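JOB MANIFEST
job_type = single_chain_structure
chain_count = 1
residues = 176
[input]
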Amino acid sequence: MKVNMFFRLAKVFLIAPFNVMIVVPGIILLLSDGFDFARGQPMILILIRSIIGFIFLGAGISICFITFSLLVKLGEGTPAPWDPPRKLVTQGIYSLVRNPMMIGVFLVLFGEAVLFFSIWLFIWFLAFLAGCLILIPQFEERGLDKAFGPRFLNYKNRVPRWLPKKNPLDIENLDK
């Protein structure tokens, strides 16, 4: 059973976040000579940029890990469209925003753009962000509405899509 779950999760990771956060940025850096991001720059600028970039990367990776874990443990599925959660997850970080995993991915992509000081990675970040802003409400949320009906509608009405609640300490019981 655990081996099967490992392969399910590995497949999801290798197809979706791995490509978005590692393969595409790697290709962009290779094509734009972006791996030489420190050439001719003062060390203090490189240090500041690296610290800021790693903060965004760390926050984004942490959020992705937390959300992935919640979808597997509580949702009994994965983030992948071909193996979606069987239960609606509204606990933890999902009680603050409806799309925390995408926020994590956004933070990683932005962190990579800052770390490598790459306009091309920043453009990739903006393109991915724009695509998500359009596609998530149109496709993902419609699918969740079909799968979970009134429970998702209640969740959608009570939890913002992108920006956390103003007072995250005042988390309501979303299962009411």
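[summary]
The helical segments are 2-15, 17-32, 43-73, 100-116, 119-158.
The radius of gyration is 18 Å.
exit_status = 0
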